[in-house]
Specification:
Length: 207
């Protein structure tokens, strides 16, 4: 098949079989990691972009009745997070390498969030990069599919532009309600929070 404008074959732009096989393998590995982490449990606390795991390790230490899963893209951060988990002996805490969107796509339909934390996720300050931010309408819809009514989503950032945009997106979303009165339930400064001069938080509840 040829693209008459460019003269190149449309098949030239198709993903290579090796790439597709890698994606399939990554998704299968993620499903296996999830199964190994949760076993028969159906609810868990999720931290997106857990970095070195400071927050979730401390959280899991104080909340031993619910499995906790932190995900991040960067292996080196997950290695450090997992060392913390092992030192603290927290079998209900798990750090998994995954992209947030892929995680949501691979999450079995019967699994539910008990709470969701998005702490100091990358603000992607340039307008053309805003599409890379975690807080997007699609993300909120996908999370909502696994969140029964009342489940909280906690968001915190030191970037005022990201804060305003996230607030607008959450307020406009039919599945979530911003609760300005809701308390922040567990304080433990993350690495990025320690570096921040100030920060702002959003607590949203699943409608
Ligand atoms: C600015 S750091 C904040 C880390 C930690 N939450 C903190 O406050 O110290 C953002 C983290 O999110 C991770 N991240 C970015 N995009 C992600 C995605 N799509 N899925 C999972 N993790 C992501 C990055 O690798 C990075 O470790």
């Amino acid at each position: 098949m040829e693209d008459s404008a460019s003269g190149s074959s449309l098949l030239d732009n198709a993903p290579r079989p090796e790439y597709l096989a890698k994606v399939v393998a990554t998704r299968a590995e993620l499903r296996a990691d999830l199964q190994a982490a949760l076993g028969a449990a159906k609810r868990f606390v999720w931290e997106v972009g857990c970095g070195h795991g400071h927050f979730l390790t401390a959280y899991a230490d104080r909340h031993r009745d619910v499995p906790c899963i932190g995900i991040d893209l960067l292996n080196e951060r997950l290695v450090r997070a997992t060392k913390k988990k092992n030192r603290a002996r927290l079998p209900h805490l798990h750090f998994i390498r995954a992209d947030a969107q892929m995680f949501l796509e691979e999450l079995p339909a019967d699994l539910e969030f008990a709470a969701i934390y998005v702490l100091f996720s990358d603000p992607w300050p340039k307008k053309r990069h805003h599409k890379n931010r975690i807080i997007q309408g699609r993300f909120l819809s996908d999370v909502a599919r696994h969140a029964p009514a009342g489940v909280p989503l906690y968001f915190r950032t030191d970037h005022s532009g990201y804060f305003s945009a996230a607030l607008e997106i959450v307020q406009a979303h039919p599945d979530w309600r911003v609760d300005p009165e809701a308390p922040w339930p567990f304080e433990l400064p993350t690495v990025f929070q320690q570096r921040a001069q100030s920060f702002q938080s959003i607590v949203a509840l699943r409608r």
